[in-house]
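Attaching the record inline, Q. Sequence:
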Amino acid sequence: MSGNISEFIAKSKVKAGDLEHKRKLTFNIQKYADAVVKGKQQYAQLELARQKAKNIKWRAIEQLDTHLETFEKNFIARGGKVIWAENADEALQAVLQICKEKNTQRVVKSKSMVTEEIHLNDFLAKHNIESVETDLGEYIQQLDGEAPYHIVTPAMHKSKEDVAKLFHEKLGTEPHLTPSELTQVARKMLREKYTSSEVGITGGNFLIADIGAVCVSENEGNGRLSTAFPKTHIAIVGIEKILPSVNDLHIFWPLLATYGTGQRVTVYNTIFTGGRTADETDGPDEMYVILLDNGRTNLLRSEVRESMYCIRCGSCLNACPVYKNIGGHAYGATYSGPIGSVITPHLKDMAEYKHLSYASSLCGNCTEVCPVKINIHEMLLENRHIAASEGLNSFSENAGWKMWKLAMLNRGLMNSAGAGIKNKVVNKLFSHSWGDGRGEIQFAPKSFAQLWKERKA
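Structure, as predicted:
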């Protein structure tokens, strides 16, 4: 058993049995679920909007190379600079080079999952550059030394009491501050960081090919502050975020807001087309866009390329019964939940992360709630098929499935196994994989076949 699998199982067992963790997670997810129900009411034809969005993403991904080149040409024409990064190391080195050129020792960073993917904060720290998270949830997680817990809500697993205790321990505040007071503390701490940083870093929700633009959606204003004060703006964006036209945003902005947080539209939606022009009073002098591959072309040529349609709304996480039980950190990957279980084995390594595709009940709720109608649960099955066909499963697992198949295809063999044998197989042979955390199973003394014969007699 690989380290990733054993670590996943160990963390999952702990979290699945942690009632307080479940209480916090259930409470926070339910708030989102209730808001999403209300948010959907803004649509007269919701299914039509979802289907249109899927069609747009299909066209974008099918012509990804053309759209990326169009984006590059139009962004450069407006004075921006584009850097292509094949992997995480190339992206990190590009950021470091820019920071050295600007002689900066601090950067402010807006919420960005792709920078978590390449572990930007840790990398910059090794080069004596402070990277400050400015999203409140990310700031909380950075103070606590934890990775984001959720794609949209980084500190979803924390209660307001947890945050107050953390601020008391790390910042020396009073131990029982209210959420409003905690926000004011963070605001005061971050304000000085904005005004003194030479470089601001963001991700990007969408890349717009026809006008050469990066779109950033957020609810706190921290994204705008991270790009308004620093003289240099770096946007690190995955290549799958491309949209053909600015006219597509009227479909995607409301869907992202509705399915992500239940809003009609996100509070701050900004379109960046380069550095500050002569007639603009604020904004960066220079803007760089780093187009990150980092395994995305593996997705493009795989059987699960449809996963590249994802707009990172987080709705599949909120709907997943497995995520609701084990939480985000148990997955051991940047992208957790159903969509993370689909894409992580292709972004990283199938042999090391194939187990994530088994972390699913296959109920299909993830597919049902996806705003762009990605067939997520079918792709989880596809990943399992890929792992099996590539011979990545262990000998014991393969042997077990062969025995199961043999039994299922042989009615006489099934009937010959009495209740005593079945009890021993399940309760003894699978005592760890099935029995831990569950009571013993006691099969009925008589099988259905026996009862049927007696009834017919």
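The chain has three domains: 1-42+309-392, 65-294, 395-456. Residues 19-39 form the longest helix (21 residues).

More tomorrow.
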